[in-house]
Amino acid sequence: MRYVALIDGKEGAYGVVVPDLPGCTSAGKTYDAAYRNAIEAIRLWIEDALEDGEKLPRPRSQLELLADRDVRRALADGAALIIIPVVRDAGRPAKANVSMDAGTLQAIDEEAAARGLTRSAFIASAALEKIRRGT
Predict the structure, then answer these.
(1) Are residues 69 and 95 in the same domain?
(2) What does DSSP assign to residue 82?
(3) What's the rounded Cα separation, in Å, for the pair 56 and 116?
(4) 128 lies in which domain range?
(5) What is the mean pLDDT of the chain?
């Protein structure tokens, strides 16, 4: 699941607003920091809503958001649309079968061992880091 958000500002002060999650905002000194903080803000907003027994709002598409007058106004004032992934801990492990080059797998295993991690923990942390960077 992903939510579309608005980001605006300048170096030293970026703000993020998630129109589909009322009151869900975030900020950061850099664009990247604001993006990473928005992932956390959405996670916390969703956890609070679920704890309160609320139903999660359906994420609108970019096209649907562009039909929103407030969103169009923010874009006209210099904001940009960004897509923020929902990263939640399900609290339970799940098996996944993945295929990759044997040399890559060997490098993963060596790096995981050097860090005191299992292969699974290393791959999961690397994937989450990539998701949170948005690249």
Answers:
(1) no
(2) E
(3) 38
(4) 89-135
(5) 91
Do 95 and 78 share a structural domain?
no
What does the buried/exposed string (b/e) look like for 55-87 if buried means 16 or more CB atoms within 10 Å of the residue's CB?
eebebbeeeebeeeeebeebbeeebeebebbee
CA 38 to chain centre: 7
Q: DSSP class of residue 37?
A: H
- Residue 72 and residue 6 share a domain: yes
Question: Tokens for 44?
Answer: 């916390």
- Are 93 and 33 members of one domain? no
Q: What is the tally of structural domains in the chain?
A: 2
Residue 94 shares a structural domain with residue 82? no
- Measured in degrees and rounded to the nearest 5, phi and psi for residue 134 equal 70, 20
pLDDT tens track for 76-135: 999 999 999 898 877 788 888 889 999 999 999 999 999 998 999 899 889 888 887 776
Same domain, 26 and 84: yes
Residue type, 79: A
Strand order in the sheet with 13-17: 25-28, 13-17, 2-10, 80-85
Residues 37 and 55 in one domain: yes
**Residue 54 exposed, middle or buried by CB count within 10 Å (0-12, 13-18, 19+):** exposed
